[in-house]
Design goal:
The chain is an alpha/beta fold. Helix content is about 35%, strand content about 25%. It is globular and about 95 Å long. The two termini are about 20 Å apart. Pfam families: Acetyltransf_3, ATP-grasp_5, CoA_binding_2, Succ_CoA_lig.
């Protein structure tokens, strides 16, 4: 990745068109037309040996003849010419090229190397970046740049749109132009062989001209980079995504379209949710989302007020709002009294405000003003249905005037729905021109509002402080991995309940008492010792779901029952699958199921995002896409709770309200521990717990199936989200003999980290924050404690306080740029623990971390008043310089040795 080279893509000062043409409908001709008509102020340089000029612009016979190095080149030639063109452009000094040609991965040269591979080899050799191939191009309306094959230009605006589909690009562009909606950038990724979603999200997330980002995705390649970039960007601005391939057939079509890896749609959904993005399901929702993003203010709350001139549309809007989990605002007596004064006696006297019949412009304007004046609403939806007495355009104009003149215009969100076609068209155009969201149906307007609500809720949920798992629950990765590796050494690929039980017990998970026996005699011996009733199950490597072949018999109460069951099971299995190898039988104690509920938990391995945890109802016929809530590890207690809520909300899990049924805390502990197992044990390829018996606080795993990776499999990058790096924990001793733990920060640290921040003296806070600042808010503290370990690091030092609880004594943190070229650090130590070596320990740990991370440079800034910090940095090898103009001390360290450079 390189944000630096993307500068030439987003801010080019000159453009070369390779393969420019005077022939109508050729790509090189369309490109020239679009560039010349869009108002780009820089040099536009056609390159072609066929013409002296293209569309009146002097042409150059070859790349070497260009008078300047182009910032951006657009290649419009046949695929077979692209590799050589890219090499020549890169040698000439061009930094970014857009490739229009398609099918380059399928065409090969005489050596059998694909044209795409040759192109990328040539580009990488010189540090050149590629957008495409198979790209429609890009539009940058603020620069007047239309370097695309699109049929129209884009208006300037604050939404960025990035798509893998050229057809979706032109469809969205056509619709947006009709609605008067503009873009900060409009980019067709094509096959995304080089420049991809992650780099663009990093750039657009920091782009001041972009207030919202929209993505059309067929597939994702770099899972960790994608999620890190999306998570960082979504904290600052909403990201909406439409993902194709929701069905199995659609996923196959999407794979053929882009050549990407096809992943499970439910896992994609979980990844989007985890990164704070909001998914829309179709183009209608996408267009509604564009409308709301183009004109909306940041949502302050969820209370919606509705004004309508008809009861039916208002009821439809309320139904949609409630069904989607929205909140209808409650009007105070004071607000109702004010409305009474301006509305007829027939009005509804509640929200929704049905002003009925001959609702004219004055009445609408007065009602809207009263609602905007109140503090009881966060958004207002104004509905209008065609009426012989209704002044459709006049009402729209009156409302636009009220909204623009009101002091709350930048805090309240106003949405409108003028239903109908011919009679409503002009009014909707007025709203669009006035910068006010407008929709064709009440349901569409409410759906757009709920997009904003869901984005706000997602961000709040992701910022929740997780509670810690109880101390009495073990997490013994050493024991678990030793057992798993022993199984791998024996050539085992599957572990059943009796073999998996000690592994799961190492993480505090309970399995039913289980024994493996070779025959009925051994089963009877176990039964006589363990007691009845028992269950008997077939053990065969050829049978995944025992119940499918009637390989299970329950409630056996005698030796005779056991012998009969063993014989019957063997016969049924051989009838169902004559080739099945029966290794023996599994004997289990019967679980007490009265008042309990059966659920299913699994960990699948997704080809795109790696391990994913699934939660749903029990049963052998189970498809995670349709039957389970899905979440990506790592999970903590807050994220596990979010997962359970999602499962209940979508009816993938049903709370049957049994006497000893679902207990939220117990479920969350189990899911979090399963997450820990998956993170700690790369030997596990998949895990299936079916069924799991939930009986209040007691959760018992009845049947377990663990599939193992091959012992030589590479599992270093299997996780989509980098988990907590437990290996970086260490103990150290300070000069005064105090023993402290140095470790990465955790989301659970938020309350103690807030206490640490509040404990800093006014002077220390002044030095840390370069000025006077108030106490941290929850949102600010969440950013500091819920970090992405792939993008930043924060080490804290903790020690036991007088009450036995950990106290945070100091912290050092640094974030790296997306290119991993530089990390910038900041540090603070409690005043009563300064001067005893704590700051030195923290900074040394940070230096070692970024050296191991191959980060070239570590920098920091401090105020002139903080000479102690500067002295510490200098003693550790930083180069310290003074910026007299900014009144700052700069600390700089080259982390790479001369031999590494």
């Amino acid at each position: 990745m390189s944000q630096r080279t993307l500068h030439s893509l987003f801010k080019p000062t000159s453009v070369a068109i390779i393969g420019a043409s005077n022939t109508e409908k050729r790509a090189g001709n369309v490109l020239m037309k679009n560039l010349l008509s869009s108002g780009f102020s820089g040099p536009i340089m056609p390159v072609t040996p066929k013409y002296r000029a293209v569309m009146g612009v002097l042409a150059y016979p070859n790349i070497e003849a260009l008078p300047i190095k182009p910032d951006l080149a657009v290649i419009c030639t046949r695929a077979c010419r692209v590799p050589a063109i890219v090499e020549t452009l890169a040698q000439f000094g061009c930094k970014v090229a857009i490739i229009m040609a398609s099918g380059m991965a399928q065409e090969v040269n005489e050596d059998g190397v694909s044209l795409l591979d040759l192109t990328m080899q040539n580009a990488k050799r010189y540090g050149m970046r590629i957008l495409g191939p198979n790209s429609l191009g890009m539009l940058l309306p603020p620069l007047g740049l239309n370097a695309s094959l699109a049929h129209a230009s884009a208006l300037p605006g604050k939404i960025a749109f990035v798509s893998q589909s050229a057809a979706i690009c032109t469809t969205v562009l056509d619709w947006a132009n009709n609605k008067g909606i503009g873009f900060s950038s409009f980019i067709s990724l094509g096959d995304a062989t080089d420049i991809n979603f992650d780099e663009l999200l990093d750039y657009l997330g920091r782009d001041s001209r972009t207030s919202a980002i929209m993505l059309y995705i067929d597939s994702v390649n770099e899972k960790r980079h994608f999620l890190s970039a999306a998570r960082a960007a979504s904290r600052n601005k909403p990201i909406l995504v439409i993902k194709s391939g929701r069905s199995a057939e659609g996923a196959r079509a999407a794979k053929l379209h882009t050549g990407g890896v096809g992943g499970n749609d439910a896992v994609y959904e979980a990844a989007f949710r985890r990164a704070g993005m909001l998914r829309v399901n179709d183009l209608i929702e996408l267009f509604a989302a564009v409308e709301s993003l183009a004109h909306s203010n940041p949502l302050q709350g969820e209370r919606l007020g509705i004004i309508s001139n008809g009861g039916g549309p208002a009821v439809l809007a309320v139904d949609e709002l409630i069904m989607r989990g929205g909140k209808l605002a409650e009007l105070s007596d004071d607000t109702i009294a004010k409305l009474e004064a301006v509305l007829p006696n027939t009005w509804s006297r509640q929200n929704p405000i049905d002003i009925i019949g001959d609702a004219n412009a004055s009445r609408y304007a007065k009602a809207l003003t009263i609602l905007m004046d109140s503090n009881e609403l966060d958004a207002i939806l104004v509905l209008h249905s065609p009426s012989a007495l209704g002044e459709s355009v006049e009402i729209a104009d009156a409302l636009i005037s009220v909204i623009h003149a009101h002091p709350k215009k930048n805090r309240l969100n106003i949405l409108t729905n003028w239903s109908g076609e011919d009679s409503a068209y002009q009014a909707r155009k007025r709203f669009t021109k006035g910068g006010i969201s407008t929709y064709r149906t009440p349901e569409g307007a409410v759906g757009a509002f709920m997009h904003m609500v869901e984005y706000r809720r997602n961000q709040k949920l992701l910022q929740e402080v997780p509670q810690s798992i109880p101390d009495n629950i073990p997490t013994d990765s050493h024991t678990a991995r030793k057992l798993l590796q022993a199984a791998q050494a024996k050539g085992k690929s599957v572990l059943e309940t009796h073999e998996a039980s000690p592994i799961l017990r190492a993480y505090g998970l309970n399995t039913i008492d289980t024994w493996f026996v070779k025959d009925a005699d051994e089963a009877v011996a176990i039964a006589n010792e363990a007691g009845y009733p028992l269950a008997l199950k077939v053990q065969s490597p050829n049978i995944l779901h025992k119940s499918d072949v009637h390989g299970v018999m329950l409630n056996l109460t005698s030796a005779e029952d056991i012998r009969h069951a063993a014989s019957a099971i063997t016969q049924r299995v051989h009838q169902a699958n004559p080739e099945a190898i029966i290794e023996g039988m599994i004997v289990q104690k019967m679980a007490l199921t009265a008042g309990a509920q059966e659920i299913r938990v699994a960990v699948i391995s997704d080809p795109v995002f790696g391990p994913a945890i699934c939660l749903g109802e029990g049963g052998s016929e189970w498809d995670p896409t349709n039957d389970a809530a899905v979440a990506l590890p790592p999970l903590n207690m807050a994220l596990a709770r979010y997962m359970v809520i999602q499962a209940l909300k979508t009816h993938k899990l049903k709370d049957r309200h049994l006497p000893l049924g679902l207990d939220m805390n117990a479920l969350c502990v189990m899911l979090t521990q399963i997450s820990h197992i998956i993170i700690d044990c790369p030997e596990i390829a998949s895990l299936d717990l079916n069924p799991v018996l939930a009986a209040g606080e007691n959760i018992t795993l009845l049947d377990v199936n663990i599939r193992l990776h091959d012992a030589n499999a590479d599992s270093s990058s299997r996780m989509a989200i980098m988990p907590y790096p437990k290996e970086l924990e260490e103990f150290a001793e300070l000069k005064n003999g105090l023993k402290v733990m140095l470790r990465p920060i955790l989301p659970e640290d938020e309350p103690k980290h807030l206490a640490f921040d509040n404990s800093l003296s006014d002077e220390d806070r002044y030095k840390r924050y370069f000025g006077v600042r108030s106490k941290m808010t929850h949102e600010e503290m969440a950013v500091l404690t819920q970090i992405d370990y792939a993008r930043e690091m924060a080490f804290i030092a903790t020690a036991k306080g007088p009450d036995g609880d950990d106290i945070t004594l100091g912290a050092v943190r640094a974030s790296i740029d997306p290119d991993n070229t530089e990390a910038e650090f900041a540090m603070a130590v409690r005043g009563d623990h300064q001067g005893i070596g704590l700051g030195k320990l923290l900074l040394e740990k940070l230096i070692k971390y970024y050296q191991a991370n191959d980060t070239p440079v570590l920098t920091g800034f401090t105020m002139f008043e903080n000479r102690n910090m500067a002295s510490l940095a200098k003693s550790l090898g930083f180069k310290v310089t003074f910026d007299m103009e900014e009144h700052l001390i700069k600390m700089h360290m080259d982390l790479k040795s001369p031999t590494d450079k």
